Amino acid sequence: MQRRQILQTLTASALMAGLRPPATAQTGTAPQGWHNWSGLQSCQPQAWKAPADETEVLQLLQTAPPPLRNLGAGHSFSPLVPTTGSLLSLDRLSGLRQHDLKTATATLGAGTRLAQASRALDAVGLAFRNLPDIDVQTLAGAMATGTHGTGMQLPALHADLQQLVLLTPTGQRLECSRQQHPEVFAAAQVSLGALGAISEMTLRVRPRHVLRRKAWLLPTEELLRTIPRLATAHRQFECYLLPHTGYGAAIVHDEVQQQPQARTEAPDEDVLADLKRLRDWFGRWPAMRRWVAQRLIDPSLQEEAVDWSWKLLSTQRPTRFNETECHVPQADGVACLREVLAALELRNDVFFPVEFRFIAADDAWLSPFYQRASCSIAVHAAHDEPWDYLLRDMGVIFRRYGGRPHWGKLHDRSQAELRALYPRWSDFLAVRRELDPQGRMLNPHLQRILMGA
Hints:
The protein is of the alpha+beta class. It has helices at 3-19, 54-63, 114-123, 139-144, 182-188, 220-233, 268-282, 286-296, 309-313, 333-344, 388-400, 415-421, 425-435, 444-451; strands at 34-35, 42-43, 47-49, 68-71, 86-89, 96-100, 105-109, 126-127, 161-167, 173-177, 197-204, 206-207, 210-219, 236-242, 247-256, 302-308, 321-329, 354-359, 374-382, 404-405.
């Protein structure tokens, strides 16, 4: 195995081991503490449970010490999970339960990781319509936070939900769809884990398919001018601007009628390490840093790959970071991106690329893309370096463009601000009160952003 493959395998193994509920979670003794992937969020719960079936989930939702929070893969940077009450892992409610090739639908346990789900679907000739760029999240966690991939005509994952089973703190088991309990369904598509626990979901999928990926470098200004054309011309487009270099990387995916081809792993981690070295060596002298970068970067370099869609769209990220991400109207996407890059280049300590993607509109009540086609802009900071500017400096720009924050990423929006951004905010709160009248699912973060407490 290549060095990068070995590292990824070890990272995945360690991640899975670290995210499994400890043995003490089932014995009644004090469970170990929890922290998220980046290490920024942590808590010491009274109980940490991994129920085996819906009956156990319903019992825990009604009796476990509150606040009770659903535990996914720990890839949210916002404090959605931390609680002094109970953590609930749905890892044992996972796997492909049924599928239908004719209707192109699949039913999976809500605790299924995206990587596991992609492999299970592939084995029966199916695939997700789109995927985010990280594949370790649980389906329930990805849906609850509005996780998305990229593509001007492609919506976020939750828009492909056809049916779900919601278990509530009042002891109800609700089968929800657009026809059955439609208001609960619209609230549960992106729920922040505030309504209870989703045990299984049926999604619209499609026959498995092959994509061709092409990635190449462009001068920043040329890339910014070209974004609208590239996003329209390709099934999926995204780009990464490289601060203090004068360059950005464009990445496109298009469906092709070819067989997968042998390929090497993309050198993403090596590129990131090089950008950090440039920062470390020349961060005090930004003009020299740019001068050196433009002489080291070969703009003729490009990457091409042909493989099954799930193998190209999602991956793992060994380098840990903290992140903020906001979604602005598509018409304002490039203008907002210009301001974000300009603000970052006023700081000599940044080195992570700025990620820019497209997402189609949908109708889930708390979806960042509710009735609004959007562009997402994501800004990262190394997990062991200052990250306050992600909120302070980026927040000012995102607010100016009416940006809706990614629920799983760092943001400091108030309840009043969020209410103004979401037309169905009051409707969501009404459903939440009905399903969890005692507020058993509300940790301090949800108390603040939902209730204004």
